[in-house]
Design a protein that fits this description.
This protein is mainly β. It has no helices and ten strands. Helices cover about 0% and strands about 45% of the residues.
């Protein structure tokens, strides 16, 4: 039985450190101070992901869930992810300033 973070067949997985059960969904990795996501197969995801009706962005190197303003290079746009990691749309007040984001793409206007 495996425990903790494991790299298997080209994917990262997370298993409970006590009972060995495979973890899925959003997981906070305390020793790395980051939130990551494991799909229903237990594989860690990265890049842009549409989960539970929201867009999220996970770093392609560290797998960290991104928040705040982010530049999506391959789409040539700046978007904003709230503290829960969800992309925001429409008019948003962020740190006292009002920003407008496209209601379809999330791109800052």
């Amino acid at each position: 039985m495996l425990y903790g973070k494991q790299y298997l067949n080209g994917h990262w997985y997370l298993f409970d450190t006590v009972i060995g059960s495979m973890k899925t969904g959003f997981q906070y990795i305390a020793d790395q101070h980051k939130t990551v996501y494991y799909n229903n197969n237990g594989q860690m995801l990265y890049g842009q992901q549409h989960l539970n009706g929201h867009w999220y962005l996970f770093d392609t190197v560290t797998f960290l869930m991104k928040t705040g303003f982010q530049y999506i290079a391959n789409q040539h746009k700046i978007v904003y992810y709230n503290n829960n990691g969800q992309m925001l749309y429409g008019f948003q007040k962020i740190k006292g300033k009002t920003y407008h984001f496209n209601t379809q793409t999330g791109a800052r206007i």
